[in-house]
Amino acid sequence: MNLIHAVCVMGLIALPSTYAAARASVGVPDEIPRRPNIVVILTDDQGWGDLSLHGNRNLETPNLDAIARQGAQFRYFYVCPVCSPTRAEFLTGRWHPRVGVHDVTAGGERLNTDEVTIARLFKDAGYRTGLFGKWHNGTQGPYHPNARGFDEFYGFTSGHWGHYFSPMLEANDELTRGSGYLPDDITNHAIRFITSGRKGSAEEDRRPFFVCLTLNTPHSPMQVPDSWWKRVENRDLPNRGADPANEDLAFTRAAIAMVENIDWNVGRLMEVLGEYDLLKETIVVFFCDNGPNSQRWNDGMRGRKGTVDEGGVRSPLFVRWDGVIHAGTEVSRIAGAIDLLPTLTDLAGISCDETKPLDGRSLKPLLMGDAVNWSERYLFAHWNGKVSVRSQKHRLDEMNRLYEMESDPGQTRDLSTMEPEETERLLAARNEFIREVLETAARARPESKGRKDGRPLTLSAIQGLDNTFLPARDAVFSGTLKRSSRHPNCSFLTNWTAEGEIEYLIENPEEGEFAASILHAASAETVGATISLQCLSDPATEVSMIINEPLELPVIGPTEDRTARSESVVRDFGTLELGRIRIPQGRFFLTLKTGHSPVTERESGLEFRGLLLRRISQFD
Questions:
Q1: Could you read off the pLDDT of 461-488 as tens digits, one per residue?
Q2: Phi, psi (5° rounding) for residue 83?
Q3: Please, where are the H alpha helices in 402-510?
Q4: Given phi > 0 = left and psi -120 to 50 = alpha, else beta, which region is 433?
Q5: At the top level of CATH, which class does the domain 457-618 belong to?
Q6: CATH architecture of the domain with residue range 38-222+246-370+377-383
Q7: What is the DSSP string of 272-304?
């Protein structure tokens, strides 16, 4: 076995002995082989330091702290510097460059379609599966959560969202309108999914559930209801970041308010598990996707979101399973997001033989206190060309500086000259990771016109997934067009004139007829403009529509922001139906153009949020 490749060591497919013992302890007969429910709670940009359990006196997180105290907490658990890579490693148990994820937008966030996800494994084992919140590993067709093992999806597939109060969302593959504050709304849907299987009498409704609650906060924009903001608006903040002069206190207060709202929602979910007597039948997991998104208190660690230092990649990990995992268990061994798939399948007695070779390992021995022969390992953090490597004791950073992490989490004392042998060992491991994982993945990555990711956007041909949404984020555009923000994820295109074209590289697995429409806004000056959609492989397929009336829509978002945003503003875009278009099988560009009436010398009021294609029929 090489330095960086761990093998998934699984038990038999039968229920693990720990689970059988737990069932016996609560009086469940052995002849009823019910596997445990799974609830995974993943927050966005929270970080290690945003918990009162970890010593942060700025906030109170009693419900999250209780999960840790009533189960196991990991002292050294590691994720990626940014969100889509962490989610990919959780979903697959493999390093994110191996599975096609190399960016957070513009297609680079997509998880390769030949990867088997943790949701697929649990679904195939008979679980009801649902994801509620942020996905961030692909939007179209085979990349969509409903195609990756989740029976039910409610949330958004983008990397971030531009508005948190009753925004546009997806319910499976249908666009819908959210209800209220987004973290509350998605928690409500997760709770409904959990409880729906307890109310019916049909046997299939009582299958165990696998639920991912992927909350979008405290990612910016920093929006939180008044009731939560007022709690922190004038609160004393005794814990400050490592660089107090550059800490934005308004941002910190907003993040604190958002985290306390997270804690309240987690408390609501845990209360429901208790009400339905599910705590002894349910494994609850909590972790974060990267370090904190600002210069706020993070327990003295160097680094934040986007860095490969300790503070950028260290996350809490809490695992609670009443009656099986002893309350108060503390694990000091290093572990990572790549370990969650093999761990949860191992605890549930599910084989992961159908996955590709895993980089993670099952943490079950650590959770059960029987890791007698636990072997040493290395964990790698990679982003923006920087790679650091963590051993149990040390971190070697991207500049080859060595730090002893237990005594020096701020990475202030370089030990590389004092411990040359350890430095060489970690350097060799990092070089192997670069060769085997990063360089191999880069060679396999296709490129395309105007895109860092050359994989086409696939039009769904999956039964039950009739809609394909092609957001402005994924477009290649030219001419007068501009993006509404430098952050593409939730952006739209502005100033669309006759000189601007919008293109999507698509792949259609099955020829068919599609109903095409766009999400748009249009000022009075755009009336009379023609918008056309054409498949470049067959110009005869063009379909078009004339804008007959303006659709002037207000900007949404900034009035609810607690701090100035860098993300795009939002509008409630209207739908313009273009008509039906026949799209042949194959790979080619879909192009949107406008025959614009008046002006080229001033800004156009025509804006574009995305193209929606609904498959109506397939041709033999």
A1: 888 889 999 999 999 999 999 999 999 9
A2: -80, -55
A3: 420-433, 440-444
A4: alpha
A5: mainly beta
A6: 3-Layer(aba) Sandwich (3.40)
A7: HHHHTT-GGGEEEEEEESSS-SSS---TT-S--
